[in-house]
Amino acid sequence: MKVILISPPNSFDKSPSLPSLTLATLSGILKKHQIDHICVDGNLMPSFEKYKQNGTGNQVILQEITELVMNYKPDLVCLSLWGVSIPFAFKLAEQLKQKASRLKIMAGGIRDTYTANYILNATTDIDYVFVGEAENSFPKFLHHFIRGNETKKITGVYSEASDDLVRTAPIESGLSVTPSYDQFINVDTRSLFVETSRGCIYQCVFCGLHYTPYRRLTPQQAVEHIRSMKTKYDVGYINFADNFFPMKGQWISQFLELLAESEIKIYWSCLIRADNIDKAIIKKLKPAGCVGVFMGVESTDNETLVLMKKSRSPERYIQQLSENIGALAEQEINIKVSTIIGFPGETKKSMWSTARFVKNLKEKGVDAYTGPLVIYPGSALWEQYIRGEIKLNRIQHQTIKRNQSGMFHECYPPDPIISPNDFIPENHHMSQTELESQISDILTFVG
């Protein structure tokens, strides 16, 4: 039994790529079960670096990965997907099936059954689709696959489209799999993603993890995991992949103290909430190796924050936001801030309030950004779109057309599942043309 794990290249992000944590987690499962495999992260391939520089070379990357697969001669190909990489996966699966019709191909990384149904309806070249986290379903699937047994009864694994698909696979109770980078091709492990938790305690309606419960390692387990990665892979920098990294409470206090007191010398960054920060914790960040934080602020308008379910106390949220950015800057922690404009029900006034906030931060040297709302499958807003409560329109304004839907997206009809960045929700306060014009003006203003 031989398996090849593939993460298609992600043309949405032009920044330097870290090795795929998803592939590393699946590799840890395969390693535990002693199954021969290799990992191919499309973002780490030399040909993809050329693509990021000039935007050409789709076919070169596709051919390069195809040849890797055919030379390895696997029994199973596993594709780790998210929306924008689906078109590339379709093309890859098509080429592989043309060369080896009996090869089995599965796709994972899918969080909702709408995307699973889309894939199974759109192509016959992908044999299985995994929905939800795979720590439970993947080993069960492998057990049955190796023995040639039926896999249809495994929860979260699907081989045909159906409106009756359950929403997700069973949630893993903990983070029990140790990621492995031993079988990666073209990998540099000096910078890695590390996961100390999954899910989130908040319910922001735009987030694709809206329905995912929160689980985390203990502070001791988290530090030991970092020590293991440092020892095995000589990691110098960690980007915590946690969707919610707390900055107040006993967990973070113990974690920072343990890390600072350990022999582990490592730099790291994380994603934090603007209103979940303790001033005393901020002073402990730098001694523990923290060099940067990413803060999803989203808006500075009271009504919009409530609509987003970002905060029930928007006035307090905005006050804490300003105070905490200042406190982080005093400790020389690099700060990145992101905001959203074009939220359903948002007004011109609220969008420009956020725009001025971002502009002010940039003038102070903070790496701040704003951009049009993207509605991702799996989010509460997506559910509203499916129910017909929100209408999505394809972006027409040339200055805000993102065209970042992924390689080969032009080969398939526009759809919010595979090209969510090319759509924007309808706004009842203004026409589509006016909305896009306002967004264009704001992007120019912010710079």
From TrEMBL:
Entry keyword annotation includes Iron: yes
Keyword field: Iron, Iron-sulfur, Metal-binding, Methyltransferase, S-adenosyl-L-methionine, Transferase
A Pfam family it matches: Radical_SAM
Keyword Metal-binding carried by entry: yes
Domain Radical SAM core, chain residue ranges per copy: 186-410
CDD domains: Radical_SAM
An annotated Gene Ontology molecular function: cobalamin binding
Matches recorded under PROSITE patterns: B12_BINDING, RADICAL_SAM
Superkingdom, taxonomy of origin: Bacteria
Domain named B12-binding: residues: 1-152
Cofactors required: [4Fe-4S] cluster
PANTHER family found in the cross-reference section: ANAEROBIC MAGNESIUM-PROTOPORPHYRIN IX MONOMETHYL ESTER CYCLASE-RELATED, BLL1977 PROTEIN
Name recorded for this polypeptide: Uncharacterized protein
